[in-house]
Amino acid sequence: MKSILKxxxxxxxxxxxxxxxxxxxxxxxxxxxxxxxxDLLFVTAKETGLSGAINNVTRKQDHASFDHMGILxxxxxxxxxxxxAPAGGSQRQSLKEFLKDQKDDGQRVIVYRLKAxxxxxxxxxxxKANAMLGKPYNFNYILDENSYYCSDFVERxxxxxxxxxxxxxxxxxxxxxxxxxxxxEFYQKxxxxxxxxxxxxxxxxxxxxxxxxxxxxxx
Length: 219
Prior knowledge:
By secondary structure, this protein is of the alpha+beta class. Helices cover 37% and strands 21% of the residues. The protein has helices at 2-27, 31-34, 49-58, 95-104, 122-131, 150-157, 181-189, 203-207; strands spanning 40-44, 66-75, 78-85, 89-94, 109-114, 167-168, 199-200, 212-218. The strands form 2 sheets. Strands 4-3-2-1-5-8 form a 6-stranded antiparallel β-sheet, with helices on both faces. The chain has a two-stranded antiparallel sheet with strand order 6-7. β2 and β3 form a beta hairpin. α5 (122-131) packs across α6. The chain is globular and about 75 Å long. The N and C termini lie far apart (51 Å).
């Protein structure tokens, strides 16, 4: 009889422990629950290729540098990222798929958010971003009205509220003081002049805006 009582007590305590554990797990905040509509998702840069070349001439921060970005849209259907990418152009992609793509490429996603006094710009920016969907990707990185690259897409979305600003582009390697070899060859193949000094933007420049605050890293 005593052994049966001990076993029953053990089972009751075990069940209580399992229930408590499940409650703790279910109450933990997930990245999705901490995200807000209009958050900006910045993708960390690689060291080589196009990503490395972008980073070489645009890097502004020591702790992180970026080569891609998008705007988070939270609605009744779920969480989505509005962004312009080489594969698919200006598009709406589920957050889950967006994060998987970056993880598969060995890149991380860092969340930035507009400071409180600028959040009123979010609804209009989301609306503008949706209106730009379907446009092709701008592979020349020279501003035009018929195609967009990632930071260009975001800057345009927030343009009416002057959240970001266009700046003269530079393709100079900071170590040599000369035009980065990648970009020199890149534009030569396109029979285009390197657009040094032309207006534009890039993910690192937007991330450095004093209107944003860094929130967290998404795993």
